[in-house]
């Protein structure tokens, strides 16, 4: 069982709990503190989407969090952040790619959620929902309400955007197949090296 927390220092900490369920332990060295907000921003940032699923016979976790572009030349800090889909099995981790639209940067996306529906014969579905700030234009009734305000902009309201992640789900399955091949190859190499070590002359006991 895993739990992700958005901390005041801008980092995302991940905690795991054992079978006994008595205490939570930070998953240092795997997932904890891998994600964070943009530089020089010490606040919780975007609410992440978080779900677990069994895909390609492997238990995985899917997360939506922003990825920041490189800053413009001669400017400090990070550029704008777009919402991305992340895949992990608590051993491997990879950025699958963007979820939000090009115009939906991190300052506009306030929270996100993931929905996964399992199915056979590629009938499974992955859907991202994210809350976005929508700017309502002012209605021109008199010049006074527009004093000290930009023309054509108004107060922000919140709207919900739904995105079917068909291509991203295909990518997830491709990555999982690659992980399986790599893990099998590494396991074979380790077994081979262990066999060589056991049968080496130094480890063979002397005959009586």
TrEMBL record:
Top-level taxon: Eukaryota
Gene3D superfamilies: 2.120.10.10
Domain Sialidase: 1-131
CDD domains: Sialidase_non-viral
Recorded GO MF terms: exo-alpha-sialidase activity
Listed name of the protein: Trans-sialidase, putative
Species for this entry: Trypanosoma cruzi marinkellei
